[in-house]
Amino acid sequence: MQLPEERRQAIVDAVEREGRVLAAELAGRLATSEDTIRRDLRDLDAAGLLRRVHGGAVRLRPAASFGERAETDLPRKMLLAHGLRACIRPDDTVLIDAGSTHLALARLLEDGCAAAIVTNSPQIALALGHFRRTRIVLLGGTYHPDEGATYGAATLAEVGRLRPDLALVGVCGVDVERGLAASNPEEAALKEAMLAVSARCAAAVLNERFDERAAFLFGALERIDQLVLESDAPPQAVARLRDRHPQLDLTFTAKAEA
């Protein structure tokens, strides 16, 4: 019989190894009840060993570099990237926000997928640097290496002169009532500007973003045309989105491989 301390250590090990775990799956693995797992997750969250989210837990996110984040949870991000790819039309000018999911998208795009792609991410621009039929434009501004992005007054000014057909904005937190949020004010200001100048707007949302307490709101969900969600997105959050924002086109990814 497994001791509580052993069970909790097994949970911590699984979260560190996999990045994200579901309470129901843990209950099966550890031959215990979901109620027991949920109590363990609450205790481990309080102890600062993981972060409890709807339906399970995720790894605590340290101050990792953009390069480290870009290699984390790649299968999930690639599935979201395929959902975003479906939003892009061949004649579009597309404004792509910095972010690791958007870098995954850049890695699967083909030359000619759009008329032009504009980004504040040098990494995304480099990933598309071999394109000839699609024009690639890198926004200027102050480079923030931890975010892998340019921000600031110069970046905002350049975005203000654009008229993109589609903006793909990164999301740090989703509040169904209040809208989309970012982790810092410079990010939020740029994302808000991207939404304001674009004819269509889309965003991909990792499940844990529904529980993320990002502090800086940048846009109402009414401004978004399409949300790409994971196949196992929290059912309560999905139901509230459909109830409060019927204009949203919700796209779900295929199920991730085990």
Key terms:
38% helix; elongated; alpha/beta; 258 residues; 7-stranded parallel β-sheet; 21% strand; 3-stranded antiparallel β-sheet; 10 helices
Report on this model:
Helix 5 (about 75-85) packs across helix 6 and helix 8 (about 155-160) packs parallel to helix 9. The chain contains ten helices and 15 strands. It is about 40% helix and about 20% strand. The protein is elongated, with a radius of gyration of 19 Å. It is an alpha/beta fold. The relative contact order is 0.12.
Straight-line N-to-C gap? 27 Å
Q: What about the largest sheet?
A: 7 strands, parallel
Number of strands: 15
Estimate the global geometry from the Cα principal axes: elongated
Strand content: 15-25%
What is the helix tally?
A: 10
Rg measurement, Å: 19 Å
What is the string of SSEs from the N terminus onward?
A: HEHHEEHHEHEHEEEHEEEHEEEHE
Q: Can you list the strand order of the major beta sheet?
A: 6-5-4-9-12-14-15
